[in-house]
From TrEMBL:
<keyword id="KW-0552">Olfaction</keyword>
<keyword id="KW-0716">Sensory transduction</keyword>
<dbReference type="GO" id="GO:0005886">
    <property type="term" value="C:plasma membrane"/>
</dbReference>
<dbReference type="InterPro" id="IPR000276">
    <property type="entry name" value="GPCR_Rhodpsn"/>
</dbReference>
<feature type="domain" description="G-protein coupled receptors family 1 profile">
    <location>
        <begin position="43"/>
        <end position="294"/>
    </location>
</feature>
<keyword id="KW-0812">Transmembrane</keyword>
<dbReference type="InterPro" id="IPR017452">
    <property type="entry name" value="GPCR_Rhodpsn_7TM"/>
</dbReference>
<keyword id="KW-0297">G-protein coupled receptor</keyword>
<dbReference type="InterPro" id="IPR050402">
    <property type="entry name" value="OR51/52/56-like"/>
</dbReference>
<dbReference type="GO" id="GO:0071396">
    <property type="term" value="P:cellular response to lipid"/>
</dbReference>
<dbReference type="GO" id="GO:0004984">
    <property type="term" value="F:olfactory receptor activity"/>
</dbReference>
<feature type="transmembrane region" description="Helical">
    <location>
        <begin position="198"/>
        <end position="223"/>
    </location>
</feature>
<dbReference type="Pfam" id="PF13853">
    <property type="entry name" value="7tm_4"/>
</dbReference>
<dbReference type="GO" id="GO:0004930">
    <property type="term" value="F:G protein-coupled receptor activity"/>
</dbReference>
<dbReference type="InterPro" id="IPR000725">
    <property type="entry name" value="Olfact_rcpt"/>
</dbReference>
<protein>
    <recommendedName>
        <fullName>Olfactory receptor</fullName>
    </recommendedName>
</protein>
<feature type="transmembrane region" description="Helical">
    <location>
        <begin position="100"/>
        <end position="122"/>
    </location>
</feature>
Amino acid sequence: MVDFNVSSDLSTIFYLTGIPGYEVVHHWISIPFCILYLVGIVGNCTILHIVRTDPILHEPMYFFLAMLSLTDMGMSLPTLVSLFRVLWSISREIEFNTCVIQMFFIHTFSFTESAVLLAMAFDRYVAICNPLRYSTVLTPQRIAKIGVAAFLRSALCMIPLLARLAYFPFCHSHVLSHSYCLHQDMIRLACADTKFNVIYGLVLIIVLWGFDSLGILVSYIFILRSVLTIASREERLKALNTCASHVCAVLILYVPMIGLSIVHRFAKHASPLVHILMAHIYLLVPPVLNPIIYSVKTKQIRRGIICLFAPKRIHSVLG
């Protein structure tokens, strides 16, 4: 039976873990992480800047892309400081309150990104199946409401899960498995009944990710049905090509997400390197690859990047 008196010591210290067995070369391992974070930050900030400053990109598809960039950074940036503090041998310690805040941002933006991908699937459905209503269905005000609703849905669902952590005594080892805090990692250290957190967390994943993935699947069923009615082969390919970047973004988020969940629940005795590798893929691959994919596959974004970085004379030639 859990004692529902909040622990008097909410500043309990936990210890983060780098890459076990490779502590001697942590400084060298930090170099590729620096590159990944730099690419992710520069790529997503570039997308945000281009969408904000280029009037041609003030359309629903690009507003949703800007949301995707924000959620990508919101999911990965909270881990930056703690990761490099470990890899640069500054400190492995993290306080309970800091840990909970970090968990909140990581998990909230993870669920938010899933909701944004659902909204982007709906955007593609309207653009392909009801193009005449596109601008009236997805107005800027409605898009803003969708973004706020996606964040609030995720944040409010996380509050009960994280709030209960304050009632748990942590009398086991305080060593976490990663260089940042994850809910499923912390509850295994609690010496109390964590059944609620385990069940609630599992239900949350099934309901939120399940609803979003089902919505994405249904949207693409309708999109494919509509595309197959198009007589011209070129027009069919053109319509499908507008969805290619979004399909890649869905796979980039969901495959590592599902893989990490499976590893934590069914491969608890696997090598620590497996857990660490999956966790880093889950947090770093989407922010790094999404801007690259959209830059390569989307002509307007590619044009915006060229206009931003190319000299004026090159810009005038391209224009």
